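Listing S7. Sequence submitted for prediction.
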Amino acid sequence: MWTARRIVGESLLSVVLGLLAAADEALSQALPPTVFHVLPGGSTLRIAAVGLAVALLTPLRRTLPATVLLVTAVASAEFTGLSPLLMVAAWSAGRRIDRVGKAVGVFAAAYVLSLGAAVLQSMEAMPLTLALAAPLLLVMVVVPGLVSRYWSQRRTLTDTLREYHAQLLRERAMVAGQARMRERQRIAQDMHDSLGHQLTLISVHTGALEVDRELTGRQRAAVGVLRKASVAALHELREVVGLLRDGTESPGHTDASPALHALGDEDATAPSRGVAGIERLVEASRNAGTAVELRRSGEPRALAPTADHAAYRIAQEGLTNAHKHAPGAPITIALRYEPDALVVEVANDPVPETTSTGSRNVVSGGQGLTGLGERTRLIGGMVHAAPTPDGGFRLAGVLPYATPAQAQTQARSTFVDPTDDFREQIPAAAPGKADPDIDGIGLPKELVKAMSRNKKRSGIAIGCGITALIGLLLVAAGAFAVIFLVGESGKAMIEPKQYDAIKVGQSEAEVRATLPRGDSFLAHGLDKGAPPEPKAAQCLTLMSSENGSSWNKEPVFRFCFLDGKLIEKKAFEVTD
């Protein structure tokens, strides 16, 4: 799909490669012909045509990679400006040709065609052309294709592994969620069968005891408090069971309250477990004979469901601890609405001296405060509990306000700590899409390090192998070129003393026996700019082993024969 970013990138690449091609073509026309470019350069029209052709072929390499590569390979021998496009086309073809057989055939054909075109351009120097062009075209055609194909396959494999990894993570999250749900249902069933039955019995017996005519008014009031407490406990048990089973607090859930309807409609109303229910807790404690004071300050604000419930639990835990550890001591509950949070504080005075020692020795597991700390931490709050200087005890919680969106999110939360919850650790991604960075999720650190080391080592090994192969090919080509040039120089080069030893008038056979044959590409073009040859004479032009008078001057020796004799020998310099 062609996005705006890709269109801009392709346009910029086309312009850059077109300018490079035009500059390269202009430079090649300014230099003398070589074994790779023996055809003379044309006009400015040729330069513009090469630049325009490269600019047009560059975007086509994405849709027609094989065609662009073959066309560029054939034309690059004549138009040297196509060299940058040749490497880019080879890179694209390596990535975009899917089948291995087709890729091998295309690159082999491109290499053979480009090498054959280079040889045809310089038939007189075919051995040297093969020695230099073979490794050079290998680097320009085959190596970019191999590297790009390896990179593309590695990227495809990595993407596949990421998708597979993400799928495994999602499946693991589903399995963990199902296991969690089964465990919660088991706990809910146990609570329903054990606590529900016992609390129902307490509610029924206290209800019957409350109407006993032999009880005094104070006893009847105490039994009423006990009955209401048991009914409230049944309602809370019902809500907890519903939360464990379904993850929601459904008012219509009645599994844990079979005896509630028998106790009357007034008692069957579920108590509020939020800030509004704190007043009922205070009233229940006062009915039990404890002096409890409720203070409010600030402008009341709405809380998220979890924060509202946490405020109720803090007040409930504080009252419970005060009743257990400081029976008879006055209790103060303060609700302070601060600008950014609600502060719930429960403080009790020291234990009265009249209280018996046995009533103070209450066994406590210490789980209540720990649970409160976890509950408030999950919603971004905190809990502090410590003795006061006068010998009492103070429990305070800070509960932040939340936006409606945050409140809905918190309402769906469970009692599972996010650090232990798979759903919080690894959010499920959309099907077919992996997380941006999942290389190390769910894997031991040692395994992640080993995988990363293996990736680096494999990449380095492949790079070193390709570099070594290219180096060996270049060394072999260089050695072959040196040997070839030494052999060619022996066919077209003599020393000045050999020139001086030959005299005019010697027979042609005698002279040619002491001189090289001159059938080398090095001797090609040595007669350009030379003095005119004698009429009807056959001349042999050879190079000198000495250097010329300047860097662009080449000393040569010429021997001209007529009627089987040497009629002229001449030494001069030609311009390269």
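Caption to Listing S7: primary sequence and predicted structure tokens for the chain studied. The two ends are 53 Å apart (CA to CA). The first helix runs from residue 4 to 30.
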